[in-house]
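worker-3 :: picked Major facilitator superfamily transporter
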Amino acid sequence: MNTLQIKRSSQALLFSNLMVGLEGTIIATALPAMMANLHGIALMSWVIAIYILMMSVTGPIWTKLADRYGYKKLFILGSLLFIASSLAEGLAVNMTMLIIARAIMGIGAGAMQLLPFVIYGVLFDAEQRRKATNNAISAYSIAAVVGPLLGGLIVSSLGWRWVFFINIPIGLIMIAVFAHYFFHDFKPSIKAIDFAGSGLLSAGLIFFMLALQFLGQAQPALMTIFSFLATALVLLILFYFVERRATDPLIPLELFKNRALMARNLMMFLQYGFFGFYSNYLPTWGQGALGQSAFVAGLILVPSSLMLVLSTQLLSRLRARFSEKNIVSTGYVFMLAGDLCLVFQGFMGNASWLFVAAACFGVGFGLTNPILQVQVQEVVAPAEIGAATALNALIRTLGNALVLSAMSVSLNSTFSSAVHDNHQISFDLLNKISDAHALHQIPRVLVEPLRYIIYHGMHKLSLIGLCLIIVAMLINFLDKEKKHA
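worker-3 :: tokens ->
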């Protein structure tokens, strides 16, 4: 491929990351209108969960199919699924249709999210790969900022259905550019596809993620959770034995013996769990515990995204002067500093510290994530890049899901204790305290106690986050220095 072909192909792949990132955030501002129109508030959480679930479990399958049939064909197929499901979501007449379409969109997003990083690893040298990875992460971060704002604009001017329809022209242009400019001297794998392993892994992870989804509810159905976890355990054990005998396993078990790879996977597991904490709970801290408006609470994460973009763009200069290990250590120090801002944040403290914490988190994530993402591909053999990338994506998602579920359990425990200890407090009032429009429905004498309960729950979460970062720092400290490729 010549310079122009590489440039245009990379731009198309960048738009792929941007679209997947937007889809994860743009829907947040459309949900109230969707629920009102389709009468499905009881199923609201599944609109988001099913998308993430299917995107996660299909990642390893997409990479294995790409080894067999080619990156170009599979990326285009995944993108077409994404576009077709966008049309179906926009035309949805009930919640069942919407959720099924979201599941199909998640399958397509699995290819659009993961295959670009595999393509970077196969086509580019180490320096080009780092630059492409930095740009992809920046695009995803920009989407996190723009998504809610763009979603609100579209819903207010065109209606919620256009949140999905807008994907269609953008996606078709992206596919056309990629199809025209991307060429790869592809040599298909002649090994049999591991369909048994694919099915067992997908089913096992689906049951596991369903268990986590139910675990995070205010009143979890313990028997349902136990049955899902038991089923997931049986399926994943069967997956292990199938992979041991497979000619071309979906995830080679040898990867788990690669200490350098697993160290990076574990660090990303922890930091993506931490990312889930601050991206989901900082706005609630500002609005529910500190009494900030919804507008101010929505702005709390903006410094994080802006600093993430800035820090990723500075990485090439930093790498010229410092080792990657020291840069990652510095990133974790920023995350630690940001979390300490929360740990020492008193009840009804200054909301500006939340903005400072968010900025620190953005710098930390921007310094660590691109380096570890590239190193995952550098510490394995070229033939293992696809499988290693898929495994890493899966571990990142599991880290996010597991930590969020653990934090949901912690919050629900705090709230349940408060409701039990004070008959004037209820879950309904705890929901209303975070909604400025519902504040007038709360007796004035209960406002401060309710805010303290929210603060107490959030403070516990900041301590969990502190533990995550300290463990990640320790792993990085003990890990051997990674030399540049």
